[in-house]
Each structure stands twice: as C-alpha cells, then as structure tokens.
C-alpha cells in the first residue's frame, strides 16, 4: 500500500479499524477529537459499534463491558478525559480484560490548554488508577509509528490480557505526514475461554475485579505481577540514533524525542558526538539499555515536555554512574531544537556536576529565561 | 442442599428456578433483594433466555449477584452498569442484557449513565432496587431517602432544606423519548410481587423485540439498616414509601402496549 498524507489522530483511528477493532466508545476533547470523528463515520460503514458516550466515565465503562465479551475494543481521549477514565482502567486491569486506550496529551494540570504536552507521563506510566497493576504504555513519535503501535497495541493487549495505553500528544495527533496503513485484517471469529458472551451450551462465566478474601487478592496481584515480569522480558522497545561513537546521549520519547533527534543532527554538525535513545515502550521502561548507555557515555541529557517526569526513571536506571542533566519545557510549550542543542553544548562544555538534582539545576537555568 | 425424590403421588409446586444458582446468598434475613432475584430467574426460565442472558451486577448489597444467577455476568464500577451494559449490547445485540442496581448506584453516582442509556434508547433492561438508603455501606442517606427519614448520615432526619429532595427515578426517566417501558412496582406482598414479576417479563419482552430502554423500579425493604423486623419494614414500605413513590406505569411505548403476558 502506498504512503498517503494522514493526520495522526485519523491514522490511529483507521489503523485500529484495520486491526479489527469491533467497538469504539469516546467523548470529544481537543486535541484528540478527530479520532472520535473518524470512528463515527467509519465504524458504522464497517458495521461495527460506535457510541459517543455522555462522558469519559461512561466511555471507559462501555469499553469495559465490550472488553468482557472478548472482542477488540478501544477508546481515546486527552489528559482531563483520561483522568476520568482511571477508575475504569483500574477495574479492567483487576478483571484482566484487554483494551486499548489512546491518550493524546495536552498541557495541564486542570483544564490547562490544548497544546501538546508530556505531563501525564507519571500518571499513565506509574499506574494512574488505584491498585497494584501495570499498564503497557507505548509512545509514538510520528504518524507512521502511531499506526504501527496501534496495531501492536491490540496484539499485546490480547496476548497479556492487559491494558495498553498509547501515550501520544497534541503535536503527533494533529500533524500530517505521509504514512502507510496496514491492510484490513479480518475480524476475530474465536474468542477467549473467559469471554462473557452468553452461556450457550456451556457453564456460566462471570468477570469481576472483586477478591473479598485478602489472600486471594494477593494471589491475583501476584498473577498480574508475574505476567508483568514476562512483559518486561519480551516487550521492551526503544530506538537508538547516532549512538555508536557517541560521547553524550539524549534520552527523550515521543515529540520530545523527535525534537531531540533534530538537535542531535545539528550538534553533530558542530562536531559534538551526541546520540539519542528514544524509549518507545515507556512501560516496560528500557532500564537495561539506559543503564548500559550510562556506562558508555560521559553524560546524559533527558529531554521532555514536562518538568522532568521520565527523568526520575532515567536516574533510577543509571544508578548515579553517569552525570545526568535535564532540559524540558512545560505547560504545552514545545522546545525548539536550538534549545536542546544549547543544553547539549552546556553538558559537553562541563564542568560535569554530580551533586544535587538535575531538575534543580534546570530550574535555576530556566529562571534566567524569565 | 439435597432435594428429596418425589414419589408418584407428589407434585412439585415450588422449586429453585434453573436460572438461580444452587447457593446461599449473603442477603440479610427478610431482605427483598432475594425476592427480586427469584423473580428475574423465574422470568428467564419461562422465556427460555438463560443461554442468551448477560447480567451486569453493580456496587451495593447486590454486588455478588453474579454468584446467585446461573447465567453469564460481569460486575461494574459503582453506578456504571448501564454504560457497561451498553458496551456489551452494542457488540452482542442479540443477547438480553440486564443491569441490577441499587438506588445509590443508579440514582446518585450513576444517574448520568442511566439517563443517557435511556435517552439513547439503549436496548437494555435495568432492575432498580429502591430501598431508600445505601444498604451496603451501612444505611446512609440515598437520593431516595424520604423527607424526615433518619439514616446514619441524616441522623436528625432528611432535611430537604439542607439535603435536597428525594428523586423519583421512574417519573424522571419516563420523560425521555428513548425510554420504552418504565414502571414502578413493589415487593411488599404477594399480589404486588406477582405484578412485579409481570413487569420484569414485559421489560424483557421489550428488549427481546428491540423496542428500547426498559426499567423496572422495585420498592424494597432494608430491615437491617432501617432498624426494623422484616414485618415492620414491610409495613413501613406500604405506609411511608408507596404514598411518596406511587406504583404504576410511567412510560409504556404504544408498541409495548401490544405485548400480552
Ligand atoms: C466510587 C465508589 N464510591 C463509593 C463506594 C462505596 N459504596 C459501596 S456500596 C455503596 C452504596 C450502595 O447503595 P445502593 O446502591 O443503594 O445499594 P444497596 O446496598 O442499598 O442495595 C457505596 C457508596 C464504591 N464502592 N465506589
Ligand atoms: S443491608 Fe439492607 S439491602 Fe443489604 S442485604 Fe441487608 S437488608 Fe438487604
């Protein structure tokens, strides 16, 4: 299939349709709404279910109900809407039903704004909903990668009976780029042995997230954790750029990773040997790759569109073995590649600082900006 | 429980419906949740729906309803059962989807979900247990608590100036175009129990024929949290609840009126 110009949000929607999503439930919120609109037209065309719910609370619980039938199902939203979905996401994690949720992040907290942001990293990657569970979180940096990760998300969700969240942002959702969609896949015809779809000719089934007996809940949570261990073993994804001879490395995901790549190319032209590691699976996080990277380079710069949320995970992964600095913009501001190049230059120029927290040094630097 | 064999002279006149699991419930003695369960199960048996049923249990005393019915079930977050039911029904339109919800669940935290399910004409059936309080959490004030009624969170009696007025859910939902069949019945005596069963049967017929949203509100007792014996509670329901929550048919779509049971 040839490449066509596509908008990020619409590409995700069509990719989900091609991946065999059988039901979509959502609620309008910028910068995600094109996804819902696309679904409102295409799902009925394909004879599949679409409901514009009365709220994200309702949308996620429609997803929960449909997921209990073992069919492929998804929703999408943006930051404030995803906050409302977290109760349902926790229930689905506790019930061990698969679902795909797309979060096209925007500036916050509160109503914030509709500009691109990565400030929900902690909320999504480190759980979000209540209870002991781990969602799989995938972060695309382009329209093509949004498509590819959407298809992957459905497979992973089913393979591990897990929630998969595609953590995108307003810039990737809104941008238009040439990209290629997968061919239309046939809808599933067989359903898992746990699916609640009417006890025709079999014993009844039920799905719930209740374990009134604490030791039984512990057993269930350990089952989730063991599954998570397998996910950590098999599903870590990241991409490396210009790292072979690198003396310095940037770690950045999604849009920030993309800006960082432009900065790496500029800095290379200036003669600074810098590369980029871009985590694609934010959960499971590429801990070993980042630890190994820390042993190879003289310093790491973490770039994010927030005040340093993934930064803490990079610090944990590098275990203090390498100096780490941070550069970020927040509130819906996207950093320019020049700003990142300057941060690389400062890192390369030294002196290397190992005391204090990189976020504090960045705050000090930012205070000069204002 | 072992059922003794019948000899040729004897006829079984009362048995556990097939759609009810052979297990004890956790409901308090005298609680009408058990009566409502039995009515649903009898209707499922009579209509031969067991293999097509999908129930959605809610959060409240009936949270374990999925253990008591012998058909497929899921269990929803507090108030969200009509949304879960919507998700199920939209992917499996030929199944009969039922929510079973209390008054805190349906008329307080889940009011938006039930109103919109009704407005969409979602082809599901809600069984709504109105016992004027939050049973499971120990008898707090619910949206259905009567003016002046004492609960653990309205210790001096519900003061409508401060706590607002009770919600008459059946009346409210009946105003929505998508609602096809909305009625209120009571579980306080055999005659009314029979009428309640007939209403549940009609609601399932409505759903089976694809006629849209149906809700049966059932006035129920909560002797434990009302601090009464079951007999006193039945009397209180009759004397206090029925005058406020009038029994009757609030919405019967003309196409439903043809259904003869
Ligand atoms: C989000 C959320 N809030 C509160 C609760 C606590 N809770 C459990 S049951 C219940 C009340 C249920 O009362 P009702 O719906 O009237 O049913 P009943 O127990 O009377 O049958 C509440 C508030 C909860 N489980 N989840
Ligand atoms: S607390 Fe009330 S509603 Fe709950 S089981 Fe007991 S009597 Fe029934």
From TrEMBL, chain A:
Pfam families in the record: PFOR_II (PF17147), POR_N (PF01855)
Domain Pyruvate:ferredoxin oxidoreductase core per the UniProt entry, residue ranges: 246-340
SUPFAM superfamilies: Thiamin diphosphate-binding fold (THDP-binding), TK C-terminal domain-like
Gene3D superfamilies: 3.40.50.920, 3.40.50.970
Single GO term (MF): 3-methyl-2-oxobutanoate dehydrogenase (ferredoxin) activity
EC number: 1.2.7.7
Cited NCBIfam families: PRK07119.1
Broad EC category: oxidoreductase
Domain Pyruvate flavodoxin/ferredoxin oxidoreductase pyrimidine binding: 14-185
Taxonomic superkingdom: Bacteria
Keywords: Oxidoreductase
Keyword Signal among record annotations: no
Designated name of the protein: 2-ketoisovalerate ferredoxin oxidoreductase
From TrEMBL, chain B:
UniProt GO MF annotations: oxidoreductase activity, acting on the aldehyde or oxo group of donors, iron-sulfur protein as acceptor; thiamine pyrophosphate binding
InterPro entries: 2-oxoacid:Fd_oxidoreductase, THDP-binding, TPP_enzyme_TPP-bd
Keyword Nuclease: no
GO biological processes: cellular respiration
Gene3D superfamilies, sorted: 3.40.50.970
UniProt KW Membrane keyword: no
Pfam family of the protein (one): TPP_enzyme_C
Species per Swiss-Prot/TrEMBL record: Leptolinea tardivitalis
UniProt keyword terms in alphabetical order: Oxidoreductase
Thiamine pyrophosphate enzyme TPP-binding domain: residues covered: 62-204
Name listed for the protein in its UniProt record: 2-oxoglutarate oxidoreductase
Domain of life (superkingdom): Bacteria
